[in-house]
Amino acid sequence: MSDKVLLDYGSGGRASQRLISELFLKYLGNDELDRLNDAAVLSLSGKIAMSTDSFTVDPIFFPGGDIGSLAVHGTVNDVAMMGAVPRYITCGYIIEEGLPMADLERIVRSMGEAAEHAGVKVVTGDTKVVPRGACDKIFINTTGIGEVIADPTPSGDAARKGDAVLVSGTIGDHGLTVLGTREGLDFEAKVQSDSAALNHLLVKLVRELPEVHVLRDPTRGGLATTLNEITKSSNVCCELTETSIPVRPEVKGGCSILGLDPLYLANEGKFLCVLPAEHADKALEIMRADPLGRDACRIGTMTDANPGKVVLVTQLGGKRLLGMLEGEQLPRIC
């Protein structure tokens, strides 16, 4: 193969077949994908959860991950938030002519490693090559499918008065890392994306605690925007305690320099859990037993004081409303 992606690789001809067999099947191959049929035949039982997503992150490589692992992690996590065991993923690639083949191989290899760790199979896909300038390096579209094991299924409209609000770890890591890498910023302390597959931890959580009301991953728009979505759907108020929200010192420092609020920065390896307060301690015990949840903590409570609102109790004891993210704080973040 050429050392750069050529338009010929998207033609459907001999070059396309070489790209599929020598690159994609090398890292993503399995008993279903290897058949190279027009569609995958899958085995599932009962209710399924399904999610689709597109990834256009800039830069495509960053500390803690790349667009390939991010695509797998983001899709797996979305399915798992529905109390489901992710099983299968589809991947569509739109690749700019001229992308170094070494970069494409690195991305596909990363996807294969992420899928293997998450325990999912990439069962079908598609590749298109577009002329230079028609896209920025590479865009990836994915769909994930999983078997729902939670009963009832966690849902964004299921939060109730008195529920505890938990977060699985520190916030803002991914957003600040991508921005810093994109702009070539050198923070005093290194920051790294939290991109990770959360499905193994989430499956354990919903199996041991079927009382979980809401599971959400605070990606674009961050913690504050995600909580606003939940409170509006559930018609409750979320009261957060500022001193309880975990933020790494290096993220706080970077946000202070750049004038950013970590509550609105994207996360790719954290989740929110809303459940009855009497089960909060057990949930935290389960989360903290996993490396991906070791910094889990309770950050707030659902009330009926201001339905549809998110209220932050500040360090000084005052209160302020946290609205939805206005505009695009950080474009091309995932």
Automatic annotation (TrEMBL):
Residues 37-148 form the PurM-like N-terminal domain. SUPFAM superfamilies: PurM C-terminal domain-like, PurM N-terminal domain-like. GO terms for biological process: protein maturation. InterPro entries: HypE, PurM-like_C_dom, PurM-like_C_sf, PurM-like_N, PurM-like_N_sf. Pfam families: AIRS, AIRS_C. Residues 160-311 form the PurM-like C-terminal domain. Belongs to the HypE family. PANTHER family: CARBAMOYL DEHYDRATASE HYPE, HYDROGENASE ISOENZYMES FORMATION PROTEIN HYPE. NCBIfam families: hypE. This is Hydrogenase expression/formation protein HypE. It comes from Pseudodesulfovibrio hydrargyri.
